[in-house]
Design goal:
By secondary structure, the protein is α+β, with helices and mostly antiparallel strands. It has a single domain (21-99), classed as Ribosomal Protein L30, Chain: A (2-Layer Sandwich), CATH 3.30.1390. Helices cover 41% and strands 21% of the residues. The protein is built from 3 helices and 3 strands. Strands 2-1-3 form a 3-stranded antiparallel β-sheet. Helix 1 crosses helix 2.
């Protein structure tokens, strides 16, 4: 072994943590039609029609419901997309993204 060769025997231990998860929450209001919420849940969040109706009823009856749980970037994108669609249709749907 020449004097210029370098040997490194130290091992770096990296602990990976799973990413934090974030909830997308829809809030109830008196102006956004339930059918529009169901369409959002099916189109943006990929729920089937039965699950979308159940979530919509929960929003209506309790004032809010978690519509999906994702990593931050995905939750934020889905929240922004849903807000944009609601605004384009003239609905005041309120959406929050909260850490789980």
């Amino acid at each position: 072994m020449a004097d210029t060769d370098i040997q490194i025997e130290d091992k770096i231990k990296i602990e990976l943590q799973p990413p934090k998860m974030w909830k997308v929450v829809f809030l109830n209001d008196d102006h956004t039609p339930m059918e529009f919420v169901i369409e959002l849940l099916m189109g943006v969040f990929k729920h089937d029609e039965a699950r979308s109706r159940d979530i919509t009823l929960e929003i209506h009856e309790t004032g809010a419901a978690v519509v999906g749980v994702y990593t931050y970037e995905i939750a934020e994108n889905k929240g922004v997309e849903s807000s944009r669609l609601a605004q384009e249709h003239g609905f005041p749907l309120q959406i929050r993204v909260e850490e789980e």
